[in-house]
Amino acid sequence: MNKNDYTTWLEIDLGAIENNVRQLLNLTGVPVMAVIKANGYGHGMVEVARAAEEAGSTWCGVARFEEALALRQAGIKTHILVLGFTPPGRVPEALHHDISLAVFNPDVAAAYAACALDHGASLKVHVKFDSGMGRLGLFPEDGLEILKQLASLKGIEVEGLFTHFARADEPLVDTTGQQLERFTALVQSVEQQGLRPRWVHAANSAATLYFPQARFDLVRCGVAIYGLHPSAKAPLPPDFRPALSLKTHLISVKTLPAQYGISYGHHYYTRDSERIGVIPIGYGDGFRRRLGAEALIRGRRVAVRGITCMDLCMISLDEVPDAEVGDEVVLIGCQGEAAITAEDLAQEWGTINYEVVCGMARRIPRFYQH
Ligand SMILES: *Cc1c(COP(=O)(O)O)cnc(C)c1O
Predict the structure, then answer these.
(1) Residues 132-170: tens digit of each pLDDT
(2) If 0-12 CB within 10 Å is exposed, 13-18 middle and 19+ buried, where does residue 334 land?
(3) Most exposed: 35, 47, 193, 320, by fewest CB within 10 Å?
(4) Where residue 291 falls among pLDDT bands split at 50, 70, 90?
(5) Atom of ligand 1 nearest to the CA of 205
(6) Cβ of 35 less than 6 Å from ligand 1
(7) Nearest to 225 by CA among 12, 80, 9, 64
(8) Interacting residues of 366 by C-beta distance below 8 A, sequence separation 6+
(9) Residue 154 is a catalytic residue
(10) Which pTM was predicted?
(11) Which of helix, strand or coil describes residue 320?
C-alpha cells in the first residue's frame, strides 16, 4: 500500500486481533466465538474471521444469514452461528454450508424441521432464552417443555442453548446475577432430563471478563477481540490492544482572517487570523456531524473547527506551525506519544465505542497489517 495514493483510510492491525483472541482463550480456558457481525464491527468481516480462526477461535457469530454465507464463501471453516432471525427459506443453504441457526419460536423451529426433512437432513440449532434482556428468546421457565418437543422433532438437532445479558458491562449491577440464576436453573433441569446439548453459552465480552461463572462451554466475544473496552466500568485487561486506526491527509492549508465563518452554518468564527487545514473525512465516512472532535497532526492534538461536512472537515493549525499539505492526520489511533481512542470519540459524540467503529463507512479503504 502506498498511503500517498489515498486520502482517507483505515489501518486494521490483525496482529492485535490475534493477540486479543489468544488472551481470551488463555483467560477463560473455553472455546471463543468471534462475534463479527456488522462487517466485523467495521473492521472487515472476512479478514477478522481469518485472523480469529488463525488465533484459535473455533466459532464465528453473526447477526444475519447473509453474513454467515459470506464467511463460508470466503473459506472460513469454523462453526458459524447466526444469532438473529433466519427466514425458513434459507434452510437449504444453511444445511449445505453447515451453518447453525438460532431458534426462539417453536413454530419457526417446526418450519425449519420440515424443510430440513425435505432435504433428508437435520439442521443444527441453538435455542435462545430471554433470561432478562427483553429482546429475543423463550422464557427459561418454558424451556424444558419446549426442548422436549424439539428433541422429538425430526429434521432439527438442538446443539446449543444460549442467553444474552442486558447489563454485564455494569459489573456492580445485580441483574446479571439474576439472569444467570434464571438461565442456570434451566440448564440444570435440562441436564437432569438428559437433554443438555453440547454448547451452553451466555457471555458477551463484559460477562466473559467480569462474570466467570457465565462462561459455560463457549464465550461470545465481540468488542474485546477488537481491543475495545466493553464499557468504562468494565475495561479490558492491559494486554489487549485496539486494532483499528482511522487516518487521513491534510489536503489544504490557509490562513483565514479574523471573524471568518467556517463550514456550513458558520458555527465557528476565527477570533484573530487563524491557520486552518482541511482534511477529507466527513459524516459520509461515519465521522459524525458534530462539533468538538479532535485530530492528531505532527504528534499534537488539534481541534476540529466548525461543523463536519459529508466529505470534509476543518482543523485548527495555529498550534502546529510546521504542518503542511500532505501530512498524515490521525482521527482514531496513535501518533507519536499522542492517541485518540474510539472511546474518546464516543464520549465526544454521546455514544459508545461500538457505534463509532460500526459506523466506519464501506467507502473507506481498509488496509490490513500483522
Ligand atoms: C453482539 C453480540 C455479542 C457480542 O457482544 P460484545 O459485547 O461485543 O462482546 C454476543 N452475543 C450476542 C447475542 C450478540 O448479539
Answers:
(1) 999 999 999 999 999 999 999 999 999 999 999 999 999
(2) middle
(3) 193
(4) confident
(5) 9
(6) yes
(7) 12
(8) 9, 10, 11, 12, 43, 44, 47
(9) no
(10) 0.97
(11) coil
